């Protein structure tokens, strides 16, 4: 069993470097009511007098006591005088020329070889944080005891359970102490040493009650019956020790500690243990080999090792999980920059390809919450832009009067027989112009999306970029600049697309000629058939209804309003005017649809060619051209302070975890329990 001690020590060493809150060390916690003998039990386990003991509240802060087995001084001196090759936890205090010594966490460099002094330091440190008048504090004192006489154990001495506040103690002292005790024993990695004096009824034991609360199955509770020597004459604890009163799974061990009188007369621990053994032989001969302080120490050591063994698989998993987490974090920080130009090229290339992939839809980080990249551009083309065009009324904003005025203006002074073509051209151009605004808006939307992809790529895909804030900003700047440069070009092209349509109204367009002819012929037929009466009648109506406007009867109206060139607000149209209007409307509609179709088709193509594809193709070279400049490299690749520091810390942690993992594996392999 002792062969495991060095391994446990190593394990503890590693755990300390890894941090106690990450890996919980199995430890033994002493619980019991005030003056039940907790400190005395601990002291006999250590084999030295050093804990403040006595009646009333003495232990007022938790004391975390780590016992560390060291070779006797002679042996240590030999190792040190030898080549000093053998390095392990046991000779980590090479300078100490004492057989046994202690150190406190709160005064790290001080070595206490006088155990009386340790006792005084505990008292002083207790007073430092909890006052001199019986106050308590949950802040533990950490003490390490190095000795050849101890087994490797970590023990926690706690203030006893009290009921009535005394001195400076607060009203809720009972609850406070219970909370403190529970915080230690609820740690599933602790063994609970419930101390109950033999001279009080076990059924009233507060220690057992608290232990049951956190360990109902009794898997980690050991019962210590103290003060066997103080039982009333004629009674003994045999029934209790045999577990017949209250069974305790891990066992019940009776002990006899030193009485206050023994302490006062400075009875040595050796004498006390001898007397204890003699007492047990006398009163409990059948149990003598399974009772007493020595047996308690061995039992505890064994339980602790079993406990460690039981914890190993879980510890291993935790170390593995933590390692993976830290490894991932380390990877995310990347390697420290050695070759600046290569790193810059690599990051720029990755950014450029991420950018293109997001447009192409081949990116690895596909978003599911909203459309982005190429998909959004597609949406802009076909939904936003397409729908807007579709919703434009070919004759929108064009009243019959507008048409009529245009016809009349086009015919000049002569009354025309046929609908003048000039007026059609004039009017259809006016409609075509209306396609420009939504087309330019389409360019703008795509431009915005391309801008958004920059953010998307720099935060999502190119994790590395976060390391180099300057480079990140520069990349954003360059891409934004490139987009800004291309925007007016794309706009110009789209503007031209509409301008081209306006430049020449192609009435010989194959889709148009048929429609034009049909509507023209239909109209002339209609005109012939319905001429005469209808026209006369309509003229009459017009004449009657609109004399004041001067637009109805050509002879009278013109005579009256010779100088009035304003377009009349409304009036009834003549049949011919009506027909002319209809013809023009039909032609406009027909031609407009042709142009709209072509614009709807060519604007996306233009945007793709002049903006999207251009940026895609030139992004990489633009980035390299602007950023890959020798004097810039160093500056661009300055890591953020945090990253550099975090990388070091994470690497150290990872190293410690690896060591812990090795030790765990070692224990599992070499010791088949
Ligand atoms: P704690 O408050 O639980 O830490 O108890 P202490 O260890 O301070 O002991 C309280 C008092 O009981 C001290 O005066 C001890 O000497 C005494 N005491 C503890 N254990 C025994 C024992 O087994 N026998 C006798 N006779 N006295 C004991
Ligand atoms: Mg005590």
From TrEMBL:
It is found in: Cytoplasm, Cytosol; Mitochondrion outer membrane. Its EC number is 3.6.5.5. Residues 22-313 form the Dynamin-type G domain. Residues 531-546 have a biased composition (Basic and acidic residues). One of its GO terms (biological process) is peroxisome fission. It comes from the Eukaryota. Residues 519-553 are annotated as: Disordered. Keywords: Cytoplasm, GTP-binding, Hydrolase, Lipid-binding, Membrane, Mitochondrion, Mitochondrion outer membrane, Nucleotide-binding. It catalyses: GTP + H2O = GDP + phosphate + H(+). The keyword NAD does not apply. SUPFAM superfamilies: P-loop containing nucleoside triphosphate hydrolases. It is a peripheral membrane protein. Residues 519-528 have a biased composition (Polar residues). GO terms for molecular function: GTP binding; GTPase activity; lipid binding; microtubule binding. Residues 581-672 form the GED domain. It is an enzyme of class 3 (hydrolase). GO terms for cellular component: cytosol; microtubule; mitochondrial outer membrane. It holds the Pfam family Dynamin_M. Belongs to the TRAFAC class dynamin-like GTPase superfamily. Dynamin/Fzo/YdjA family. This is Dynamin-1-like protein. It comes from Betta splendens (Siamese fighting fish).
């Amino acid at each position: 069993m002792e062969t495991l001690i060095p391994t446990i020590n190593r394990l503890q060493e590693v755990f300390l470097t890894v941090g106690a809150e990450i890996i919980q060390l199995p430890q033994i916690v002493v619980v019991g009511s005030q003056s039940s003998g907790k400190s005395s039990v601990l002291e006999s386990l250590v084999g030295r007098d050093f804990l403040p003991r006595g009646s009333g509240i003495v232990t007022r802060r938790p004391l975390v006591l780590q016992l560390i087995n060291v070779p006797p001084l002679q042996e240590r001196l030999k190792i040190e005088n030898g080549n000093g090759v053998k390095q392990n936890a046991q000779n980590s205090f090479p300078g100490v020329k004492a057989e046994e010594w202690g150190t406190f966490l709160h005064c790290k460099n001080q070595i206490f070889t006088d155990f009386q002094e340790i006792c005084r330091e505990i008292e002083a440190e207790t007073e430092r944080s909890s006052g001199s008048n019986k106050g308590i504090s949950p802040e533990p004192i950490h003490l390490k005891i190095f000795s050849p006489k101890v087994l490797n154990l970590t023990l926690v001495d706690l203030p006893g359970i009290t009921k009535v506040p005394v001195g400076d103690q607060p009203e809720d002292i009972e609850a406070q102490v219970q909370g403190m005790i529970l915080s230690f024993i609820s740690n599933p990695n602790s063994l609970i040493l419930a101390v109950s004096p033999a001279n009080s009824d076990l059924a009233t034991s507060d220690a057992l009650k608290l232990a049951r609360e956190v360990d109902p199955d009794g898997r980690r509770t050991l019962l210590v019956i103290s003060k066997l020597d103080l039982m009333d004459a004629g009674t003994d604890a045999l029934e209790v020790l045999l577990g017949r009163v209250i069974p305790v799974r891990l066992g019940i061990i009776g002990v006899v500690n030193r009485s206050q009188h023994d302490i006062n007369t400075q009875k040595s621990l050796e004498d006390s243990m001898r007397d204890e053994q003699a007492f047990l032989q006398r009163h409990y001969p059948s149990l003598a080999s399974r009772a007493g302080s020595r047996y308690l120490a061995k039992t505890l050591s064994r339980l602790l090792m079993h406990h460690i063994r039981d914890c190993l698989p879980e510890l291993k998993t935790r170390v593995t999980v933590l390692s993976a987490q830290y490894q991932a974090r380390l990877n995310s920080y990347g390697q420290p920059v050695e070759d600046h130009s290569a790193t810059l090229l690599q990051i720029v290339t990755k950014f450029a390809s991420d950018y293109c992939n997001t447009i192409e839809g081949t990116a690895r980080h596909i978003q599911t919450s909203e459309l982005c990249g190429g998909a959004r551009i597609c949406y802009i083309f076909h939904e936003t832009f397409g729908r807007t065009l579709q919703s434009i009324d070919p004759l929108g904003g064009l009243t019959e009067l507008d048409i009529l005025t245009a016809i009349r203006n086009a015919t000049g002074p002569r009354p025309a027989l046929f609908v003048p073509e000039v007026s059609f051209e004039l009017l259809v151009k006016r409609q075509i112009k209306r396609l420009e605004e939504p087309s330019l808006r389409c360019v703008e939307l795509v431009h915005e999306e391309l801008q958004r992809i920059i953010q998307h790529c720099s935060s999502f895909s190119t994790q590395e970029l976060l390391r180099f804030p300057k480079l990140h900003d520069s990349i954003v700047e360059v891409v934004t600049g490139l987009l800004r440069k291309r925007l007016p070009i794309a706009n110009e092209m789209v503007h031209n697309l509409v301008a081209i349509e306006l430049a020449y109204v192609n009435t010989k367009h194959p889709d148009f000629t048929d429609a034009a002819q049909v509507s023209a012929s239909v109209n002339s037929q209609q005109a012939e058939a319905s001429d005469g009466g209808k026209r006369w009648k309509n003229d009459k109506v017009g004449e009657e209804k609109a004399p004041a406007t001067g637009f109805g009867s050509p002879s009278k109206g013109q005579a009256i309003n010779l100088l009035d060139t304003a377009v009349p607000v409304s009036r009834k149209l003549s049949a011919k005017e009506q027909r002319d209007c209809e013809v023009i409307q039909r032609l406009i509609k027909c031609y407009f649809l042709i142009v709209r179709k072509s614009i709807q088709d060519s604007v996306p193509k233009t945007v793709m060619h002049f903006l999207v594809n251009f940026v895609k193709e030139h992004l990489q070279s633009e980035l390299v051209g602007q950023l890959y400049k020798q004097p810039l490299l160093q500056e661009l690749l300055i890591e953020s302070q945090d990253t550099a520091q975090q990388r070091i810390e994470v690497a150290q942690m990872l190293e410690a975890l690896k060591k812990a993992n090795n030790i765990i594996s070692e224990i599992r392999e070499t010791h088949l329990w």
